């Protein structure tokens, strides 16, 4: 039907445009998908069952019908591109009768191609606005439903708004919650809008650039408030140029961290960003909050958070002894992995890796003593972790792991010897092993050969 209507529309248009549009608009309807009262009729007259059911297309023909419907709408929009009276009528009919988001998106793309010719031909602003309106409807239709082309749709709408002008761009930013998810809004939408290419395309003056940037910062803060885990980093990036907005975005992250909305991994990512941007103390605060959510058992020496833990310790060490002193109790509480604790201990016992404070040149940085806080507490925790891990590994050890265990004990002895009475403590550990696990004769023989 739609194909025939398209033919009639094209044939009648040069002779009787009113009749052509009347035929096209009537044919664009898709009654099979419209609301009706057929169910009530069937309930009254069961004999109508078969006749009513035959009105519905089979699932494999519906898609074809929608393609034809879209082609008819595209032809009519193209014909009405310069008609300020007919174009809104065709647009309204398409918005009301096309129920497929994919076909509606295709129609919007067709209208955009005609309105903004790739060969640089004359533009049609009215048709471009119609394409934009179709794009807005597609965004609303697919916001809460899955569509594999959603990412393409988002990028296209931003492009269309850019072609339309600053007012259209600001409108999608201010009404983002109706069109985009928070992640989309702070990601592809805001990033593209704030890019240098977009500013040049819109030919904005300084005042307009500031207006656009202000709208983008407002969007960033709203999205970060609504979805901190996925939007915090993008929000901070968008707010970099304004100190008040940046501080507000940072506070949103802190609040999310204190309420356990963000994971430790996400917090570490933001903390690293803050350090990179030159805010070490803010980075340290986030690192401490992130550490509260990290827990390493004795056997998790390959945990993905280990690099972040080392970074947090290096940051606190570089800031000064008070910061490291504040972090160590949290580290001791949440990390039971002996190898991780011993690695941190060795790194912190050396000179600070870099000083992030402004008065760095006036400070004389000396290696921290292992006999005084905070490293003393860390050393004791590392030794205790090695003792506990040793007994845990011996409980279920098999002969093929004897070699690994001896190497582990070698690393343990290195850590024990950092303490003043470390050699005595290690000797006691070995004696306890020989006594408690004397049934493992081969293993104890290896221990005796290596450690006496």
Automatic annotation (TrEMBL):
Keywords: Metal-binding, Zinc, Zinc-finger. It holds the Pfam family ZSWIM4-8_C. Coiled coil: none annotated. Residues 266-443 form the ZSWIM4-8 C-terminal domain. The keyword Ribonucleoprotein does not apply. It comes from the Eukaryota. InterPro entries: ZSWIM4-8_C (IPR048370). GO terms for molecular function: zinc ion binding. One of its GO terms (cellular component) is Cul2-RING ubiquitin ligase complex. This is Zinc finger SWIM domain-containing protein 5. It comes from Argiope bruennichi (Wasp spider).
């Amino acid at each position: 039907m739609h194909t025939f209507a398209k033919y009639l529309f094209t044939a009648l248009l040069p002779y009787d445009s009113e009749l052509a549009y009347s035929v096209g608009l009537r044919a664009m309807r898709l009654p099979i998908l419209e609301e009706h009262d057929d169910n009530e009729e069937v309930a009254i007259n069961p004999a109508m069952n078969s006749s009513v059911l035959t009105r519905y297309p089979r699932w494999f023909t519906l898609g074809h019908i929608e393609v034809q419907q879209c082609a008819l709408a595209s032809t009519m929009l193209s014909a009405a591109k310069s008609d300020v009276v007919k174009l809104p009528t065709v647009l309204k009919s398409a918005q009301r009768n096309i129920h497929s988001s994919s076909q509606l998106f295709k129609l919007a793309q067709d209208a955009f191609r005609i309105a903004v010719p790739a060969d640089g031909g004359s533009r049609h602003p009215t048709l471009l606005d119609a394409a934009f309106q179709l794009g807005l409807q597609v965004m609303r239709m697919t916001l809460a439903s899955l569509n594999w082309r959603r990412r393409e749709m988002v990028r296209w709408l931003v492009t269309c708004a850019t072609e339309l002008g600053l007012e259209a761009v600001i409108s999608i930013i201010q009404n983002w919650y109706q069109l985009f998810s928070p992640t989309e809004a702070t990601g592809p939408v805001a990033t593209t809008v704030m890019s240098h290419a977009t500013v040049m395309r819109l030919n904005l003056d300084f005042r307009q650039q500031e207006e656009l940037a202000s709208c983008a910062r407002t969007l960033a803060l709203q999205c970060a408030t609504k979805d901190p885990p996925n939007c915090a980093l993008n929000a901070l990036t968008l707010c970099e140029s304004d100190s008040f907005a940046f501080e507000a975005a940072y506070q949103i992250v802190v609040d999310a961290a204190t309420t356990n909305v963000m994971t430790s991994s996400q917090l570490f990512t933001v903390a690293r960003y803050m350090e990179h941007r030159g805010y070490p103390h803010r980075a340290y605060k986030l690192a401490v909050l992130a550490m509260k959510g990290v827990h390493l058992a004795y056997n998790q020496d390959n945990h993905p958070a280990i690099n972040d833990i080392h970074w947090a310790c290096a940051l606190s060490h570089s800031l000064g002894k008070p910061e490291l002193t504040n972090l160590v109790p949290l580290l001791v509480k949440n990390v039971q992995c002996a190898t991780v604790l011993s690695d941190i201990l060795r790194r912190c016992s050396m000179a600070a890796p870099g000083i992030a404070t402004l008065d760095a040149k006036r400070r004389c940085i000396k290696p921290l003593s292992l006999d005084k806080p905070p490293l003393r507490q860390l050393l004791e925790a590392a030794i205790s972790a090695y003792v506990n891990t040793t007994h845990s590994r011996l409980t279920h050890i098999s002969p093929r792991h004897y070699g690994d265990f001896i190497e582990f004990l070698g690393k343990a002895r290195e850590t024990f010897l950092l303490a003043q009475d470390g050699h005595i403590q290690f000797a006691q550990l070995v004696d306890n092993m020989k006594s408690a696990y004397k049934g493992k004769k081969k293993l104890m023989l290896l221990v005796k050969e290596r450690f006496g």
